[in-house]
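Here we describe the complex-level prediction in full. Unlike the single-chain runs in Section 2.1, the two entities below were treated as one system.
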Amino acid sequence: MNDEHVDGPVTPVDRYALRARVSAELVTFLDRHEALLASVSTDLAPVVAALRDFLDGGKRMRPAFCYWGWRAAAGDEWGSADQDRAERGGADQDSDEPAVVRAAAALELLQASALIHDDYMDGSDTRRGAPAIHRRFEALHRGGGWEGEPERFGAAAAILLGDITLTWCDELFTRCGLGAARIHAARPVFDLMRSEVMAGQYLDVVAQARGLSVSTPEETLARARTVIRYKSAKYTIERPLQLGAALATGVADGPLAAALSGYGLPLGEAFQLRDDVLGVFGDPATTGKPAGDDLREGKQTVLVALAAQQATEAQGKALRDGLGDPALDEAGVGELRSIITRTGALAEVEERISELTRTALAALEPAPITAESRAVLAELAVAATARKV
Amino acid sequence: MNDEHVDGPVTPVDRYALRARVSAELVTFLDRHEALLASVSTDLAPVVAALRDFLDGGKRMRPAFCYWGWRAAAGDEWGSADQDRAERGGADQDSDEPAVVRAAAALELLQASALIHDDYMDGSDTRRGAPAIHRRFEALHRGGGWEGEPERFGAAAAILLGDITLTWCDELFTRCGLGAARIHAARPVFDLMRSEVMAGQYLDVVAQARGLSVSTPEETLARARTVIRYKSAKYTIERPLQLGAALATGVADGPLAAALSGYGLPLGEAFQLRDDVLGVFGDPATTGKPAGDDLREGKQTVLVALAAQQATEAQGKALRDGLGDPALDEAGVGELRSIITRTGALAEVEERISELTRTALAALEPAPITAESRAVLAELAVAATARKV
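The structure predicted for the assembly as a whole is:
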């Protein structure tokens, strides 16, 4: 359920020092809340420390799409190659731009919430190369020699940290500094995005529970495609873009939103398919997760469903047996990888990624957006879907 | 961690048909979201069904305080004894009142989120006399003969349902129908309330982990008091009142907010102390939870901390051994109850409840609020703290 296998040393598109500025906004936000929480109790210090570490990571992908959705609509009044803008004191300019960076940064808090909860639900040990939040708080419990089960404490902490980042997303977004009416106009997209990603996550859990042993490969494939659409394509790309556009125009839908959909939905699907491939074939050094973790977690991806569909009887049995086995060792991972390759599933997914990326890029051509944003969105499409294995 | 032992057949103050109208707003909200989720997948039907059942319960306490915070500030332009207002088509009047009911109803979504997550964290089997959400989804998993552990599926469902109600809270609040500027002005209270309750819940978990075996009774008592303040006094009473007032005045603080604090904080503490007493001594028919559930969960309440402080060595040992033992039987519950009574802890807590309630009532006298709201808040104070065992 952790759609962040591309979290490693990938070079993203980063104009206007956006990544650094998103990080700075998150730090400022945490500083303010650290003061609030410290006034409540010193026992809250580990909460802030954990969130600081967690939020320090991440490729800032959703903020990038939100920001570029805004610029796509807002025009490029600062000149299309003006990468030094932030250094020249852009934040003091009489413009909405710094507030939009703040609104975009809020999406990292939503993503943090989703990942913290996902990692606990999936029983993942690591995230972004460090212990998952629930493991970190298990260790705090053990280190303190506290009462009760460390696992239960870790679980509660992860649930509550995910909850607080979820409300902080809304807080940072709403109080980003744009006028109340503008924020209000963008709310329908913001609200839809959150309901959709949670619905998608629930469907992902259902898909895993109604796995290949109780469903046909066709049912599994259909479920995997719905999950991709809601949990990834809309959440990661389409909605952030539309959210940014709505912040610029004060309108939640219309031709611009539709054009951004034409780019965002296929690209989002391609992005998730790439992530699924990395979840099976990715290098741990790149993904920050143990090799084959998705196989051990039993993720019912399109990749797996296609393999099941085209498998021989013996391959199908090996797939059903190995998938979701937490004790799956390196040889077992190797066997499943081989089945996924030999059935042609890998090639089919790679082909689909290329096709979806082409569709996304083609949708940019006629879109009513600025030349600069068209160029950047094209670069982002390549970065989000490129082979990294 | 479940501060709802007074959820049973208690008669609350309910003017203007507020409870029914809050329930109706929640139903309308769920209807709209059911349509959205149904368009995504039929697999989401159990999510909406579970939330419908869950949100049907509850005393609507936080909405009541929010509403009366608003009326306290907004004046009583409809006449102080006009209980038939809603029937006479009040919702069609050119006023903010229906939107305020909607904003108040949003607090039930926050509370639902907190309870759904709490019940999972505490391992509680029941809530409001029905299976807890995680148990309900465990049963769905078992009934379907799905793959994997039912408990893990139940956990994931509970986490995601708590997440979705958490975002729906701010969706309903923000889009209640009041002007964007008014909502915006009340946001600081809304945001503070959410951060505080989550901080309080984390501290509650820490308090249980750093229980009587590793902490002195004095440390436990100090922790229990902080938890009460943030998890209950502020969240249940002070902040809902101030939120309502801010929706009326467009100002988040000031003399009115301070006056409402003078009533809300002591009353909120008294309310939680009453809840703690019910958690140990309450009748399951009234509380909707098995007798002595708080003792089995190992809740480190003020009641328990006072008992530990005043216990003989033998009593202290029995308390430490029994508290948090999931297998504690009726006799064990009886013994702990007896210790809590014989040490004088129960009497001390009862005395404290009376004292706090008197303080809250006294704060109403000079408060710059309408006569009607003064009378209703006095009634609410009595209802929230009355003995029900």
